[in-house]
Amino acid sequence: MDTLWRDGGRANQIFFISGGHKPVNLHQWGPGVRDVYALHYIIRGQGTLETGGQHYRLGAGESFIIFPQKEIYYYPDPADPWEYVWIEFDGRDAGRIVDLTQLSVKHPVLPAAPETMEMWFHLAWNAGASPSEVLRADARLQLLLSYYIEFFPSEKQTETRDEVWMAKTYIEQNYWQSSLTVAEIVQAVNLERSYLFRKFKEATGESVSTYITACRIRRACELLESSQLSIQSIAYSVGYNDPLYFSRVFKKATSYTPSAYMMLHQKKITSNTFTGDV
């Protein structure tokens, strides 16, 4: 197998390994364990999965997953053998993503999906060894899993919706846009304006607009400390089209002008260099 399939960068995320289609026949597997995750979708027919001391009889539209290092045994119904598609995947984030669904080691099966999942499995197989094909395979795997997350969300997902976290995340991903507004954040979170404001204030001690400014100033400090960018470039990089206005906001927040803050940090670096501090 090409090293692209298991290089360090891909192993740190979630990556496609292989997939296939099993036509109607009497194929069975196990008892045994796999090293990776293997998600199966039954197109038609019936079969049985045995794992963790449980027996699950499955039919058309249902799914089951094999977890790494968990003993399993699965086989078709002799009178009505199943036909299924499957996909193998792994990576550091694989478990976390599977946890967003109702699948678990204790309950590795899912009922019939509201629509057929077969086509998404077929798309995911379309992979090769070139960097572009590898990237597309991983993307199609994530697309497939996104439908499982949508159709079969975990209880944690359905019971909790952290609007404050969603608002903070949106701000931290979009602070650099000068056009970012509170109204845009309210729309992104899909929550009534005054309710979000109250929840945000209770959780952070700050208003939404104050948090936006704090996020921008925090990033500006990082750039002033570590980059050789001009003040104008830094201003644009954190969402301010007017460098003079940026300077006023920065000074109000830090008691320093951007130039003074940059010089102060450079002096600290120089001082540490001469004293041998690291």
From TrEMBL:
Pfam families in UniProt: AraC_binding, HTH_18
UniProt entry keywords in alphabetical sequence: DNA-binding, Transcription, Transcription regulation
Domain of life per record: Bacteria
Residue span, HTH araC/xylS-type domain: 165-264
Classification via SMART domains: HTH_ARAC
Family annotation (PANTHER family): ARAC-FAMILY TRANSCRIPTIONAL REGULATOR, MMSAB OPERON REGULATORY PROTEIN
Protein name, as recorded: AraC-type DNA-binding protein
Organism expressing this protein natively: Paenibacillus polysaccharolyticus
Upper lineage: Bacteria, Bacillati, Bacillota, Bacilli, Bacillales
